[in-house]
Structure formats: structure tokens, C-alpha cells
Amino acid sequence: MVRQSGDVIVDLRNISLRFGGVKALTDISFDVREHEIRSIIGPNGAGKSSMLNVINGVYHPQEGQIHFRGQLRRRMEPHHAAEQGIARTFQNIALFKGMTVLDNIMTGRALKMRCNFLQHAFYWGAAQREESAHRLKVEEIIEFLEIQSIRKTPVGRLPYGLQKRVELARALAAEPHILLLDEPMAGMNVEEKQDMCRFILDVNDHYGTTIVLIEHDMGVVMDISDRVVVLDYGRKIGDGLPDEVKGNPEVIAAYLGTAH
Amino acid sequence: MATTRAAAVDVASLDTFPRLLMEHARQRPQRPAMREKEYGIWQTSTWADVAARVRALASGLAELGFKRGDRLAVVGDNRPRLYWSVAACQCLGGIPVMMYQDAVAQEMAYVMKDADIRFACVEDQEQVDKLLEIEAGLPSLERIVYDDPRGLRHYNQPFLHGMDEVLEMGRIHDEHHPDFLTNEIDKGSPEDIAVMLYTSGTTGQPKGVCQSHAAFIAAARGGCAFDRLGETEDILSYLPMAWVGDHLFSYAQALVAGFTINCPESAETVMNDLREIGPTYYFAPPRVFENLLTQVTIRMEDASRPKRALFAYFMNVARRCGADILDGKPVSAADRLRYALGNVLIYGPLKNVLGLSRIRVAYTAGAAIGPDLFRFYRSVGINLKQLYGQTETCAYVCLQPDGKIKFDSVGTPAPQVEVKLADNGEILVRGPMLLKAYYKRPEATAEALNAEGYFLTGDAGVLDADGHLKIIDRAKDVGRLNGGGLFAPNYIENKLKFFPYVKEAVCFGNRRDHVTAFINIDLEAVGNWAERRGLAYAGYTDLAGQAAVYALVKDCVEQVNADLSSDAAMGDAQVRRFLILHKELDADDGELTRTRKVRRNFIAEKYAVLVDALYAGKASQYIETQVSYEDGRSNMVAAELRIEDAQTFPPQARKAA
Questions:
Q1: How far is B263 from chain A (nearest CA, A)?
Q2: Cβ <8 Å between B40 and A142
Q3: Is the pTM of this model over 0.90?
């Protein structure tokens, strides 16, 4: 399958990130092109989640530059990232457990709401129209991810696999250009993984969303990614098409271990 | 407006489905015809909308080359647009061929080939993928129209069309040639084939049953008149469109009576949608009613003590007089008062939770329904009834009339239907609803219809003194005892299986002196029972062999015997001796079919020693059996099986009239 990937939209150059004396990332450079599915893989503690946190402005690297759509990005905070169309899901599900699926997804629209607090409180006129418009968008996503049957169910009562799907739905509600997915398939059974893969491919195809994905399941990564970057101990040890990465001896060593 | 009013004709005189549809659009344009939940909100199409869309779709199909007599495959979940495509196809004089949406590609290939399908209307990518997989082997297939475009954007096969595209094409065509479709509808005749439904094919390959407009309209009119269904009914259409029942209730009856069909959002939301719609007319197979009741029971067990007491008290009241009140029989004023109170406190809220508060008529069919289950629903005031029918009879043979319900019968012959029994007990039916033919199978048609025009149902039954039909078994399974008594194994087995402790039962008795039975206990139910009584057991085989369990099962068997003894036709077929099998019957061992029906002959051969021991009067028998596990391993199970006698009762010597 050859998907058309476009221009580079995120360009990371020589990124280094330290927490005190701990080097989380060392001199990493790679880029993300528009519309592609870009995977970051690596053993535990390789710096994958840190990498995502750098992209959406949670962490600020000590060295290196990030170019977003060709522009050098100075210090960016997570809400700037959200405003620029970067949405994400978390490795440990971060949903509002007591709220319904629908309400959780609605929170993903918060940034797009234009009415002020008072208007919402009275729920009248523009606020009402706005709510309907947002609800329509949310319902589209509910249908897209096939979670109609749990619309009104509190998230805390759902099985893990469905919670992950709800998290994806909330991220999608922000209509992102770039979607950062942190281990969307961790802890799922085979069937749930297949479903999630299909949804990721569908999102990529239908909404044209660029996807940056962290995942441990090699089968999944090799199947759905356009390009893969491999980290180990905070360093980049491989970058390229899935097949190239699969053949890279350093990657094999990092994953399978070497004889000591 | 005045002219259209004057031109309005009596719906009862219309004889094809397209004419009915167009007439509804004239007479009740603003009444809701179909509802579908989209984006979480029920969206309504009025009869005028539906008629306009069907016109457009039919014109679009015609532009794509669809011709009179062509067959259109319809595959998918219950979607309004698929119902439109059925009507559109009929407008053009084509024959919709309804197919099961969960069939695998190879099964679809068989039907597609058998029916020489040229056009297909399918729901979504899943169905398109299946058709593309088998398309190379289907030279006659020319065009595929899909409803939901999701995931299909990159499919560039020239023969694939989105339904929106076809609708738009048709709308323009209809604007320029408004007479075209009207003429096509006028050309239709009630004797044309309205639809082809495939039999499930439990015996051999599936056969296409051709039903004419006249047949289905007769069945639908008969049913609507019988239950006084009018334009205000609401029905939830959630059973497969390819099943004859859905075609009768959601299509034929809806078009005859002009009522509203509601399509659930997805298969998983059916229970929710049921609550939101609150249908007035409802059909479900027995297992759905069973699941609903189980949910209620579980939730009641978790409820607080006063609530449980209240529930128990009012359920007692309901058991005593609920069904009688529903049937309009005399009930004491005190009981009526209690029942009314119960309705406010328990039955009403319960029905509301189940989504059944507005039900006027509910039907069940397809399998035997346990009398307790049936009584429960009737006692809380839900007018649940049974019916009997087959694909070949438009699911229309017998219906239970309001107020004259017998729990073990399927009711009296429906209006215009003649029912009689052959010498071997087989049910023969005649009436306007019979199939025209099996598609391309004159021999099968000739076999199924006898010289007098009766259809041979293949089911065996008994008519009681009041003319109620009781289905007892498949005709080919029914045998005779040496004494001449009727032996219907399935009938007895079902009676045994209605006890929660009995999971499976296999009865023997054809050309024998008396009836004997193998029993499989329900490990969960009997296990719970044993736990409560402090009985220790090591597994199925151990539990099945315990004396206390034998006593428990013996009690069930004797209750069935007592029940059978009061039955005029079946009084001789009481279970004399039984044993509890040392292993659970399993499809992996070939003892059950994949749909969990017992394979009686296979079991009789496999356990021939046990059958012999039952008839030889032995008190026990040693047996070793190989069992296969799901992972392919196998193992031997051995046991000394105890055989017990059960008490029988003198049959009440009352012969059926």
C-alpha cells in the first residue's frame, strides 16, 4: 500500500532532553510528513513518550529545534499545541471516569467553543446553537468509531479497550491535524487491536490526519506505519520504511538483545 | 388537494406493494413511515419522503440498466434505504432477493449464482468487500449499489455506485420523465413475484422461495385485520431482513396498514432503541424474552429486601390473575384492585424499563417458548402471543387470538388459511399466502405442494378440540410406539428442557414398547442447587451420578409424564426409564449440530449400549467414551451409569375429535 504523503510538517532537529543528570533524549532528529502514519518504537525507557511530550510542548528540550510547518517553534505550551491542531491520547487513560462517553468527547471540543461562560450557563441563543453544532460533530465521531451503544455510559464502567477508543474519540473531537497516540493498543486482545488498527487507518484515510504513534506490538507497527523511527536509550538507532527498519541490525539487537 | 382526495382509493383494494406505497404517500403524506437513529437522534421519513426516494431510487436503477424481471440482491442490517431498494425494485417489476448480512462470502456466492443476480444493493464496505471477493465467479453480477460510503472512497471499480449518486441520478430522470415510473408501477400485476427469500437450508442447499405480491399482501392483510393493526402502530425492525418474519412485519404489514417502522442504530443498541421507541407491535424469538427476564431476575436479586418482598408479592398477584385480566375473564374485585396497585408499583415500571409499556401485540415464534416464561409476560399485562408459519407460507399459518391463549399451542388457523393433518401427523396448509414456486426447482415445488394445493410443512402437529394447533416435532422425526401411540421426541425433550436443571434431553421410543430418555443436567443450575444443599462434587461426571441429582431429575421427568398423561394424543409417550449421561453432549463430538440441536440418530448409535440397557431393564451400565477438547486433544471418560424408572400416569382416555 502506498499512501501519498505530503510536505514535512514537523521537523525535529538535534533534540536533547535532560531531567537533571538523566539524559532522556540525545541528539534526535527526524521529521513527520503530512498525512503519514509515523511510528516511534523502542524498548521500555527508550524515550518514546518523552518524544511525544516534546512534540506537543509538555517538555522543553534543552537543545535542538522544532520546526512546525516550516516555522521555528520557540517555547511552546500544550495549549499552544492544541490550538495548532495537535491532539493526543495517553498511555494511561486520562478520561473523566464519572462522566458519560458523550460528555467526555464533548470536552474535546472545548477549544472550539466561542461562547462565554455566562452564555453557556443560561444556555440560550448562540450558546444553544453552538452546543448543537458541536454535538453534531461529536455524534459523527461516535458513529465513526462505532461507539453508539455506549454513548450514555459512564466511562468508568467500560472495559479498557473501549476506554481507549473513547480517548481516541475525544482527541478526534478537536479535529486535529496531527494526532499523537501513546500506545493506543497496550493491554488489548487481538480482536481489540485489530479494531483499533482499522480505526487508526480510517482516521488517517478519512480525515487525512497525520498520526504519530507509539506502539510495542511490532506486527501492528509494521502493518500500518508509513515510516518508523527507532529509539534506544534516548538515541535514534533507526529510521525509515518498516521493511528497512526490520532489517536494521542495531534495531534487531535492541529488540532481541545481543549475546553478552 | 380536493382532486387528490377524490382520487384517493381504498387501500384495501390495492394489489401490489408499489401501489400501496404511492397510495399511502397520497393519503397520509405527513405520517411517519420510517425512523432511523442518526447522530443520536431519531430521524423520521414521512410516507411522502419515502415514496419520493423510492421513485428516485427506482428511476436511478432503471438508468443503470435494471429491467423488469431482474433480480436485485439486498444485503445488510435493517436500514430504511435497504427497505426503499426493495420497494424500488418492485416498482420496476424486479424481484428483490433478500440475503443474510452475516453470511460469509462463499454462502453469498451460492445464492447470488442460484438467483442469477445482476444488481445488488448492499449496506456498507463489509458487504461490498464480500461481493468483490466472489465477483470473479459471478458473471451475471453487473452493478453494486452501496448505502454507507464509509471506507469506500478509494474503491474505483466502475460497477460500484453510491446510493446517493443513484438517488440523484434517478431524481433528475424522474423529473424529466415523470410518467416512466408511473407506467412501470401500472404494469405490475399481483401475480408477479414480489420477493425471493431463501430457506435456511438445514436440509440440503438453500432454496429460493418465490412469493407473489398477492400472497404477501393476503398474509399481511389477514394479520393486520386479526390484530386490528392500524397506521399508528410502531414496530422495531431489528431481525434480519432476509428472514420471512421481518419481511412480513416490517415491510408487508407496514405497507398494508401504513404504520411506522423503526430501524435501530446498530445491533448493539437494540435494547436501548427498544426503550426509546416503545413499540406497540413487537416480535422477538423466545431467547430475547428469556434474556429480558433473566436481566430482571438478576437485578431483582440485587435489590433491597423490601423491594424484593414487594416484587414477590405482586408477582404472585400477577400469576394468580394477570393473564385472566388480560384475557378478559372474570376476576374478583379484590384481585382487580391488587392488580391495579401492582400495575402502578411494579408491572408498569417494569414494562417501562423493558421498553414494553406501549405494546398492544407481541409475537414470538421460531422455537418452543417455556410456559413459565410465556406466563410471566402475559401476567404483567404484555399481550404476548405465539404464531406459526414458514418462509413458504409468508410466516402466516396460525395465530393465537386475543383472549383465547393456550400456552402450548400456536393458536388457530389464521383468516383465509386452511389447516389439516395428514395421516402421519404432518401439518398441511392451503391459502392465498402459499409460495408460487421454489426458484428454478420444479421438482422441489412439486414435492412441497400436493395435488389439492396443500403445502406440506414438514412439521407434525395435533389439533385439539377447540381447533388450536399444537406443533410437536418435525414430521420426519415423529414415530409410533409399538402400542400405536404417537411418539414425538422433540416435544418431550422440549418439555424436559423447560426445567432449568435439564440442559439437553434425548428421547427414544420409535418402534419400541415405551419411551426412554438420556438427560444432560445443566452444570450451572444443578451445581448451584448442589452448593446450596452442601453436596460436594468433583465435576460434571461426579455430579451427574449422585443419587440426589437423580432424584431431582426424576422429579422433573415425572412432572413431564403427568403433563403428557393429560394430553390426548401423547398420553402413551411417557418416559418410563431414564439415565443421566456421564458427559455433556457437545458439537465437537458430533452429538449436537452447530446450532445446538441434538443429533438423535448419531447419539443412538454412539451410545447403543446405553439404549440397550435402558430397554433391557438393567439397573446400571458401564460405559467408556472418548471426548474431544477444543484444543484438539481427546480423553476417555468412563462411568457406571445408573438407570432409573420414572413413575408414569394413566393416560386420560380422551381421543381428539
A1: 14
A2: yes
A3: no
B187-206 pLDDT, tens digit each: 999 999 999 999 876 566 88
The whole domain housing B609 covers 478-645
- Residue B328 and residue B448 in one domain: yes
Q: Which of B284-298, B467-481, B492-506, B583-597 has the lowest mean pLDDT?
A: B583-597
**What value does the mean pLDDT take over residues B239-248?**
93
β-sheet bridge partners, residue B234: B260
- pLDDT of B656 over the 60 cut: no
Q: In terms of residues, how long is chain B?
A: 657
Looking at the structure, tell me whether residues B160 and B220 fall in a common domain: yes
**Is B518 inside a domain boundary?**
yes
Give the separation between CA B494 and CA B627, rounded to whole angstroms.
Answer: 25
- Which of A140, A149, A206 is the closest to B39 by Cβ? A140
CB B23 within 8 A of CB B39: no
**Do residues B435 and B337 both lie within one domain?**
yes
Most confident among A53-67, A89-103, B545-559, B575-589 (mean pLDDT): B545-559
Choose one of B474, B509, B539: the last residue of a domain: B474
Closest C-alpha to B218, from B418, B33, B12, B9: B12
Strand, coil or helix: what is A255? helix
pLDDT at B2: 40
Whether B654 is in a domain gets the answer: no
Listed range (A81-90, B81-90, B646-655) with the worst mean pLDDT: B646-655
The dihedrals phi and psi of B406, each to the nearest 5 degrees, come to: -115, 130
Domain end, chosen from B412, B445, B474, is at B474
Q: Which residue of A has its CA nearest to B267?
A: A149
Contact B656, B463 (CB under 8 A): yes
Name the nearest CA neighbour of B80 among B34, B17, B144.
B34
Helix (H) or strand (E) holding B214: helix B213-226
Residue B33 region by backbone torsions, left for phi larger than 0, else alpha for psi between -120 and 50, else beta = alpha
B431 pLDDT above the threshold of 90: yes
Mean pLDDT of B629-649: 84
CATH topology of domain A1-85+176-260: Rossmann fold (3.40.50)
Q: Find the closest chain A residue to B37 by CA distance.
A: A148
Residues of A in contact with B126 (CB under 8 A): none
Q: Is B92 helix (H, G, I), strand (E, B) or coil?
A: coil
Q: Give domain status of residue B650, yes or no.
A: no
Q: Are B188 and B93 in contact (CB under 8 A)?
A: yes
Residues from chain A that touch B154, judged by Cβ atoms under 8 A, are: 205
Domain CATH code at residue B148: 3.40.50.12780
Higher pLDDT, B317 or A129: B317
B309-336 pLDDT, tens digit per residue, is: 999 999 999 999 998 999 888 999 999 9
Q: Would residue B655 count as lying in a domain? A: no
Q: How many CB atoms lie within 10 A of CB B253?
A: 26
Total domains present in chain B = 3
Length of chain A: 260
Q: How confident is the model at residue B499 (pLDDT cuts 50, 70, 90)?
A: confident
Q: Which of B153, B154, B266 has its CB closest to that of A148?
A: B266
Interface contact flag, A148 B154, Cβ < 8 Å: no
Task: Check pLDDT > 50 for residue B6.
Answer: no
Residue with cell 455510559: A153
Same domain? For B401 and B261 the reply is no
B203 CB-side CA count, 13 A: 4
